[in-house]
Amino acid sequence: MRHSSRVVTLLAVAALPLALSACSSGSSGSSGSSSDTGAHAKPAKEKDPNAGLLSGTQLKQVLAPASAFPAGFTAEADGASDSAGDFLSPSARKTAKPDCTRLEGTSWIQVTGYQGGVSFAQNDYANHDKTETLAQEIDEFQGATANKVMAQLQSVAAECATFTDTDMHAKVKTTGRSTSGLGDEAYTITLTSGAWENGTTLVAARSGSAVVTVLSTHGSDNGAASAKKLTAQLVDALKTKKGA
Question: Parallel, antiparallel, or unpaired for β 81-82 and 119-126?
Answer without folding.
Answer: antiparallel
